[in-house]
Amino acid sequence: MSGRRPARRAGVVGVTLATLLSHYRRHPGQLAMLLLGLWVAGALWSSVQAINATARDSYARAEALFETRLDRIERRDGTPLSPATYAALRRDGMAVSPLVAGELTLAGSAAGEAPLRLLGIDPLTLPGTSPLARRTGDAASLRDWLLPPHRLRAAPDVADAARRDPRLPPVEVDPGLPPATLVTDIGVAQRLLGLAGPTRLVIAPEAPAELPDALMRIPARQLASPGQLADSFHLNLTAMGLLALVVGLFIVHAALGLALEQRLGLLRTLRALGVPGRTLVVALGLELLTLGLVGAGLGILGGVLLARLLLPDVAASLASLYDSHVGTRLALPWHFWLGGVAIILGGLASAGAGLLWRVARLDVLALGHAQAWRARLGGLLRRQAWAGGALIMLAAGLGGWLWLTGDRQLVAGFVMVTAALLGVTLWLPAWLAGSWRLAARLGRRRALWAWALADLQLQLPRLQLPMMALLLALATNLGVSSMVGGFRLTFLDWLDQRLLADLYLHPEAERHDALQAWLADQPEVATLLPARHAEATLLDAAAQSAAPVALFGIRPAAVLRAHWPLRLPAAERDAAWQALAAGEVFVNEQLANRYRRRPGDTLTLRGADGRRHRLSIAAIYPDYGNPRPEVVMPVARLTRVFAAPPGSLGVVLRDAPGSRRQRLDALVTRLAARFGPATAESAIDQQALKADATRVFERTFAITRALDALTLGVAALALLTTLLAQAGTRRAQLAPLWALGVSRRRLVGVQCLQLTGTALGTALLALPLGLALAWALVAVINVAAFGWRLPLHLFPLQLLVTLGLAVLVAGLAALLPAWRLWRMPPRQLLQEFAAT
Amino acid sequence: MLQLTDVAKSYPTPQGPLFVLDGIDLHLAPGESLALMGESGSGKSTLLHLAAGLDVPDRGEIHFHERALSALDEPARADLRRRHLGLVFQQFHLVPSLAVIDNLTLQARLADREDPDWTDHLLERLGLTGLEQRYPEQLSGGQQQRLAIGRALAPRPDLLLADEPTGNLDEAAADRVLALLHELIHESRCALLMVTHSARVAAPLDRCLRLHYGRLEPGEP
Ligand SMILES: Nc1ncnc2c1ncn2[C@@H]1O[C@H](COP(=O)(O)OP(=O)(O)OP(=O)(O)O)[C@@H](O)[C@H]1O
Ligand SMILES: [Mg+2]
């Protein structure tokens, strides 16, 4: 049997490390839990980072193109520039360059697909500071560019589609271009867009220019995108990612603590066999590093996959909320990968450093005693509760200050939310221990009850981390779903208010007036709500900066007045409508927030004809989901003053017997007979419109919801893995009870009750925290991030759902260990008993 | 080889310090075997821990191979344990996640002194041949005890410190393990300091001392 055995040489560190790692071979569950925690934390965090990095890349490419690099020259009256103006400026020695910008729909693109941005440039005159100019630098490529068939540079995401369009010149891929952008020679672009001259002139910011009075120069600085709002959206995302990271690290911390506690005996044996303490710490550190690298790899991989799944929704959100265009393909810089590894290793180090420090400090003889280990935890718990209390006070103070001053600062909001979340989390173990003591006092006479509660106190060091994760996840879930729920309610209300008509028609311009007259005579029609739309430019006092705004014309009929939302007390609404009729305007919240206007302030608008109009603001109205500033006035005035073209006609049906559908169909049939099928086909049922709008809305919150659900899932996993990992020790504690005559069924029942009770206690603490979070999100963070305020809605059902979720999570997590205990043969329980 | 001079040790307790050892002098020559007896709680394990450098005395000095333990830092004491000492604990302290063969060679590998012939010899003499790939929990109490002894002897230490190595065994089994221990000690010319309650166990050893109220007295096996 005993042949020659080769001697193995691995050195003290090597042998120690191998011995330490052998623990995981016997307890693969703990290893799985550790890697799972790292994976989840890393995946959620890096998916958010990948999305942010891609968005930033898109923004950067968009900005690098011109917006921040070149000044723009426009006519003061806003009319198009003529080629003659350009020629005159060049003759006077000014280094202006013509530019054409427009939207192009590619041949063969699907209906409903967004058009691409086409830019035409003149490389000979374009200032050298522009990235566009640099690209056409060498002589050969310049010749290709200038001479037929010319060249077209396309962003990577649209290059293939562009190649399929026969109208376009040969395509070169340019990764420096923002998504959905094509660049070509100005002549080609003019032909493709059907334009006679340049749409604007650009000039290098440092180049001097003596402009005639009719022209103005808009500095590049002022053209920078209003990126602040989009920035805060990303900040929100980052905060969510950070939360997920923290929850994941809770798992890691719990798993590490467990893996170490169960190896205390081993650590002592190794020390006794002559492994220096320092070597032990080095070996444990190496173990952490190995785990961290594997976990980081898995996490980043998972994150990239997740980001790929979520990106289309995020891109849709950003487009509908902020008008920012983000590519739907991930663009990840090198520092994304490095940063991901660094943050996961850093998180692991923060979770492991405390443990290593304790290993290094405990002396050999005490090292093996879990009791000594726990004794230190007692002190930790007290300090933790104090720190938690202090943080809660800080959060409350900040909340009060925000409330009183009405100042909506994003940073203060985030600090408040973080302090509240962290404070309550730290305070949780003390709260649980206190509740158990109280419960124990109430049920002192029942032996099993008393045992169960005493046992929970012993389990606290292990249970506290997964319960903290659960608390965070529940509170965020409640806060976020209150916010989204309130948002949805408000939004649907607002849709109901804005979409008052049962039917919307978009007739051809020449039929508009006839149709309006005909509709007014129809018996089904109660009210006609014509609406028109025009564009104007908002000027500041010095007429130096200009921003586009949308003008919206409405007919202030009684139904509309009754439903149109205004941010005014009910008593002042009538006066506001009278002011509107008398020549004032309403503006949406986005305009009011971005340009700091209030009722009573004035706006200077420049219409398409170049005339200026000073308008006084009568009221502000909420305008959810609209990225653009908007001004509302009576449709008659919009038509007269701003020459708005014919727009849509809304038809409000008269209340009458019979189904709404039938009356609507009857009207549309007669309409088709009178005006032809084309006009009838332009009719849109209000309900279809609402469904569309709601779909866009749901998409906006897809990522919030996804991250939220994932976080809750992670918390459940944390609990499950903790329970599984300590199942062995638990059985050893339960075996004596079994030997003393407590049936296995009751043992399983007690265990489930212990856990669900603890989860319920945690959820009770999560309720106020979640509500505070909802308030912070709605009243502070959203105002700063989205530019509009929401009313705070409380849903009692949501509170019940939170409690139910806690019980469900705990129940699910308890199920597997309980089932295993249930199925365990008595012989094995006896062994556990003998071993204790 | 091992020299304790006026060694004292106390433990802090809520009622004030508990003086366990008070002026211990002890000398052990190479190859010599010594039994340490005494009532439960008299400080036998404490003395053993001090001798192994696992703990430090309040007063006095311990020399091993002419070197004062107090002059060594923690890594140096660990190095000394690894290379020169074998320890057998009352509760064995086997590594549950390592197979028998890896447990047996653990200290030898740590000391970089693995000797395959000696390992095979130990396996055979300890009656563990054929059990190499089992885990400690799959062994009987006596087998675990023999494995613990084997682990301590595998690096060929100069001194074996054993704390009630047969405390968990019945008389017959204890006798067999002890006989084996003595043979192996003779083979490897290793000194032995063994803590025991039992006169039967102490009898075959060269000398016997008794701990009484913190001091050593000559003992009767
Ligand atoms: N870490 C400690 N803190 C406080 N007192 C201790 C500690 N370790 C041991 N003691 C006390 O010191 C005394 C001697 O303990 P020791 O373990 O050396 O006794 P022992 O002779 O080995 O007993 P036994 O034969 O029962 O193993 C005992 O009274 C014990 O209670
Ligand atoms: Mg003892």
TrEMBL record, chain A:
InterPro entries: ABC3_permease_C, Membrane_comp_ABC_pdt. It comes from the Bacteria. Its main location: membrane. It is found in: Cell membrane. Residues 240-361, 710-826 form the ABC3 transporter permease C-terminal domain. Keywords: Cell membrane, Membrane, Transmembrane, Transmembrane helix. It is a multi-pass membrane protein. Coiled coil: none annotated. It holds the Pfam family FtsX. The keyword Transmembrane applies. The chain crosses the membrane at residues 31-48, 237-260, 280-311, 331-357, 385-404, 410-434, 469-491, 709-728, 772-791, 797-819. The keyword Metal-binding does not apply. This is FtsX-like permease family protein. It comes from Modicisalibacter tunisiensis.
From TrEMBL, chain B:
The keyword Glycoprotein does not apply. The lineage of its organism: Bacteria, Pseudomonadati, Pseudomonadota, Gammaproteobacteria, Oceanospirillales. Gene3D superfamilies: P-loop containing nucleotide triphosphate hydrolases (3.40.50.300). Keywords: ATP-binding, Nucleotide-binding, Transport. It holds the Pfam family ABC_tran. InterPro entries: AAA+_ATPase, ABC_transporter-like_ATP-bd, ABC_transporter-like_CS, ABC_transpr_LolD-like, MacB-like_ATP-bd, P-loop_NTPase. CDD domains: ABC_MJ0796_LolCDE_FtsE (cd03255). This is ABC transporter ATP-binding protein.
